[in-house]
Amino acid sequence: MYLRYFGLTEKPFSIAPNPEFLFLSDRHKEALAHLTYGLGDAGGFVLLTGEVGTGKTTVTRSMLAQLPESTQVAFVLNPALSEMELLASICDELNIEYDAKEATLKSLTDVIKARLLANHEQGGHTMLIIDEAQHLAAEVLEQLRLLTNLETDHKKLLQIVLVGQPELQQLLQRNELRQLAQRITARYHLLPLTESQVFSYVKHRLNKAGCNTNLFSDQSIQYIHQVTAGIPRLINLLADRCLLGAYSAQQQEVSKQIAQEAAKEALPLNLIPEHQKRALNMPALVSGWVAAMFACGFGLSFLF
């Protein structure tokens, strides 16, 4: 709707992942460096955590782009699985044939280990990436640890990347998972963008969409950082609505006022400072109103 008005070739703030719009902040680059180092070591487990929308998928995609072509990667995107279901999913991802009706934990483990060894003998690598890993059951994590027992004199034959929300760190602190925790060769917790990084992020995405002018005032960017806490996914939601608001008002620049109105439409109310102030003042307002009612001679029967 607003593309032609602002001279854009496509939506700059779509929440759908698009490699063309890849933006790596200093924090994303640091996370990528930690993961790459961990994977280049002896193998085992690598851990990436962060709040929802902070860019864990962005870092993971960047990591994948740097892997050798000889690396076979298995993805598990729904980790709420039993041990059997997880091993079956790994087999499916690695194109390993197995008899689903006769499958057991041992038989699935055996065929997976056979594939790991075959990949290694052919000069290849095998990697397992598990998203939303905070939902993994302790016994499933232990099963993953057992898979990493297969190794040569120099490295593990399976590298596992666990990606999840901060709860994953708490999960791995459990006593029964201490052996797995000791095998984590690199870990990184991804923080949201700083205010200066939000400026760079917005400019980067506008440029990628064909705009070489700044469509957002400094005050609007500062407000966007404030209400989104620097979380890229929320920034995209709000910035997109800001451009729509500026178009509707026939303005060439997103002002702070436009950003404030857009936030009410695009974000949960509890994130908006103006609403937070009203919510905090509400008990006092209600108490004052009730006191005034009593002062005027009205009793509780009026209220109920």
UniProtKB/TrEMBL annotation:
Taxonomic superkingdom: Bacteria
Alphabetical list of SMART domains matching this protein: AAA
Q: What UniProt keywords are attached to this protein's entry?
A: Coiled coil, Membrane, Transmembrane, Transmembrane helix
- The coiled-coil segments of this chain are 91-150
Q: Which SUPFAM superfamilies match?
A: P-loop containing nucleoside triphosphate hydrolases
Q: What are the transmembrane regions? A: 284-303
The record's GO molecular-function terms, alphabetically, read: ATP hydrolysis activity
Concerning Gene3D superfamilies, the annotation shows: P-loop containing nucleotide triphosphate hydrolases
Which CDD domains does the record match to this protein? AAA
Record Pfam families: AAA_22
Give start and end of each AAA+ ATPase domain. 42-196
Q: What is this protein called?
A: AAA family ATPase
Organism of derivation: Pseudoalteromonas luteoviolacea
For this protein's source organism, the top of the classification is:
Bacteria, Pseudomonadati, Pseudomonadota, Gammaproteobacteria, Alteromonadales
